[in-house]
Amino acid sequence: MSGLEQFKDRNVSQNYYKVQIEPYPKTGWEKFKRVLKRSIKLELFVGLKITLMEMLRFNIHTVQYPKEKLPIGPRYRAVHRLLRLLESGTERCIGCGLCEKICISNCIRIDTKVDEHGRKVPTEYTINFGRCIFCGYCAEVCPELAIVHGPDYENASEQRAHFALKEDMLTPLDKLKQQQEYPGFGAPTPVADQRIKKTPLAY
Amino acid sequence: MDAAFVIATIIKILIVLGIFSALAGFGTYVERKVLAFMQRRLGPMHVGPYGLLQVLADGIKLFTKEDFIPQGAVRPIFMIAPVITAATAFIAMAAIPMFPEFTIGGYTVKPIISDINVGLLFVLGVMGAGLYGPLLAGMASQNKWSILGAARTAIQFLSYEVVTGLSVLAPVMIVGSLSLIDFNNYQAGGVSDWLVWKQPIAFILFLIAGFAETNRTPFDLLEHEAEVISGYATEYSGMRWGMFFIGEYANMFTLGFLASLIFLGGFNDLWFIPGAIAILMKVFFIFFFFLWTRASWPHVRPDQLMWLCWKVLMPLAVINVVITGIVMMF
Fold this sequence. Notes:
The complex is a heterodimer. In chain A, 25% of the residues lie in helices and 10% in strands. By secondary structure, chain A is α+β, with helices and mostly antiparallel strands. Chain A has a domain at 80-187: 2-Layer Sandwich (Alpha-Beta Plaits), CATH 3.30.70.3270. The radius of gyration of chain A is 28 Å and the shape is elongated. Chain B is mostly helical. The longest helix of chain B has 36 residues, at 3-38. In chain B, a hairpin with a 2-residue loop joins strand 1 (102-104) and strand 2 (107-109). Chain B has one domain. Chain B has a two-stranded antiparallel ribbon.
């Protein structure tokens, strides 16, 4: 995670390098002196030296994208995921419809029913990714941490409807062990337990 | 004129055409790689090992692209302009001795297509005529960017051609011949005999003018993307555009050979290195220098180019010629 620290640093301005600009020559004599100074200092060859040193040093910064990938920030908001409860494997979603309500681009659609245990579960959960602006409100508003943003940003597809269906986003039952708790947008902070207070009604 | 001479000349022409067309393609690969490395990139990597077949892919693309001629363009001139650039670039190579003489099966091969006694004049003249390509292309294209590119061709041509001529005048005075083989033989005595030590200013001026002549970066006014889209080549596509490109790269190699022959000892043996390899090393260094400057230096404005050529380089060249004359007289 230490590699991600640089992405989190918002205070960029402290590393600014101020360029010293000499006053612009006004008279012809001053211009001539500048030409002479630049010629004697061989300023053109300074540039040549820099590029040649870069070439010899061979410090390549290219990320060959499909083969290599950069780490993305933990709060990155890519294609959504529906999570399951770790112990029982049932869906976390309680069908409250808050995400559907808060969605500002109106792209979430839920159908719910009451199952045999008397629990409300969603039968349909679709997000129109052509319309979704990945604002993260749905993940933030979800009281059960059921809908979260995943790290999968490669969502190009031949079909508009791909990845938009519930079964594409829901953690498959056999992959339940690999389901990670979501650290990103809308998730409780690591110190949430210490910060929590009893509701005023209790005392 | 016997049959062997005719056959040998035709073979030589075919070899020069083939090799330099291929080198123009390979030159683009080298250019992209060198620029990439200097800018901490990798350049083409995906087609073939280390992107080597990128040249082939680009070639297929250029050959199969639609040969498009805009409606308002002057058809015949628009079609013939790229041919002028490519043809003059290759014609200029006719008078350049590429390698020392060698023998194959008892037949002595002179690696020069035509050993004329005004070789230098011929090469510079034909390279100068090559500028008609961009000029006519820009004027025939019926496009504002193209006409700007053509106008820039004209001012660039007028500016640098004076410097080229005056800068080689001093070496010509010293050698006393316009034949490039005479230039080469004059510098036969090793590194200390190279004309660059006697004529350093002429060498620098010739190189600067060469950048303008081959339309390379500090002086790539003709097709500077940020200012005039692609200049004279804006309306061109497919193989016609490719011919401009081949012409430019062939010109770069021609200029490399010229600078090596006139100033850097030509194809004489260099210490233990045989002459043929020595001249190739010199040419490729100059080619690399073209790419190196492209990665390092910004390009100049048209008025700056004119200022540089007329107010700085031309007086320097004239002074150089005068001083050379005075030194030779006494």
